[in-house]
Design brief:
The structure holds two protein chains of two kinds.
Chain A: H1 5-29, H2 31-34, H3 38-62, H4 66-91, H5 100-117, H6 126-141, H7 143-150, H8 155-173
Chain B: H1 2-41, H2 56-60, H3 63-91
Helix pairs in contact in B: 1-3
The chains are: A mainly alpha, B mainly alpha.
């Protein structure tokens, strides 16, 4: 028996929280110190790639409409491409900081997919609110990896990039299908949960 | 006079370093604390507190505990080595 969809969202939230904390730590100590142990450089790109890989079974087993399937498929591809590019940078196979634009593109594509596949308004139910909130967070957050391509050593840019993942994790942890948001729930949304 | 400036610069350098090390050291416990606070605010998110009648997935899915575990993992597996490397890098003579 499959676990409910919100559980999968919480597992991915834990993954985003891990990535966010790793990026935050790298921003605090600086890339030079962070890469004093080679394995550390691979940590967050590996998590991102793995999460992209794990998104495929989610797409296969959980989506109940074409638009949901396309959205989940685009997240899987976006996370895998971004993770692979960042792994290439960490390994030294890729040299240009402009490869960070891959991550910016992946965030923008993911944000567009999450915004486009949510067909209800912000206050329909908690899941609808969170789709809009995560979509706009990722769309605006895409500016950080974009800026990182041009200013790779900026602490502010790196911290902002890390916080995009932390905030996304908080939103995903808040997910409860048809639960109300700020006390409001559309009568058409279904039975309320806490 | 020069040694006075050198002492002040060294003190400022050490302060900056200790701030960065403290930030790394605090990240794990702060994350764990956030998870514990969440558990107090929304105890119904922890099905292990009232496990009767819960299925396997409901007993496995304890989001506040996930947050605590992420913080614990950071504090135990990552922070000590990172702080050590940070101190080594700062203590190394600059060229």
């Amino acid at each position: 028996m499959l676990p409910p969809a919100e559980f999968v969202h919480w597992w991915f939230a834990a993954g985003f929280l891990i990535i966010g904390l790793l990026l935050l730590a790298e921003a605090v100590v600086g890339t030079k110190v962070w890469r004093r142990r080679a394995w550390r450089g691979y940590l967050w790109p590996s998590f991102l790639f793995l999460m992209g890989l794990l998104m495929w079974p989610v797409m296969t087993l959980y989506t109940n409409s074409t638009i949901h399937m396309l959205a989940h498929g685009s997240w899987a591809q976006a996370m895998m491409v971004a993770g692979a590019a960042e792994l290439g940078l960490a390994r030294g196979k890729l040299h240009s900081p402009y490869w960070s634009l891959t991550t910016a593109g992946a965030l923008a594509v993911s944000a567009s997919a999450i915004l486009l596949h949510e067909q209800n308004g912000w206050f329909y139910a908690r899941s609808a609110f969170l789709h809009h909130a995560i979509g706009w967070t990722c769309l605006i957050g895409a500016l950080f990896p974009l800026a990182r391509a041009f200013r790779p050593s900026s602490v502010a840019v790196r911290t902002g990039f890390a916080l995009v993942f932390v905030v996304t994790a908080v939103f995903l942890f808040s997910d409860r299908d048809t639960a109300p948001i700020f006390g409001h729930l559309s009568p058409e949304a279904g039975q309320a949960h806490r | 006079m020069e040694s006075h400036f050198a002492t002040e610069a060294a003190a400022a350098h050490a302060r900056r370093r200790s701030l960065r090390a403290a930030a790394i050291w605090l990240t794990g416990p702060a994350t764990m604390l956030a998870g514990v606070a969440w558990a107090f605010v929304q105890p119904y998110r922890l099905t292990i507190l009232h496990p009767h009648g819960q299925g396997f997935w409901w007993l496995l899915s304890e989001p506040p505990l996930y947050v605590v575990l992420v913080g614990l993992g950071f504090a135990v597996l990552l922070a000590p080595g990172l702080i050590e490397d940070l101190e080594e890098a700062e203590d190394a003579p600059s060229r």
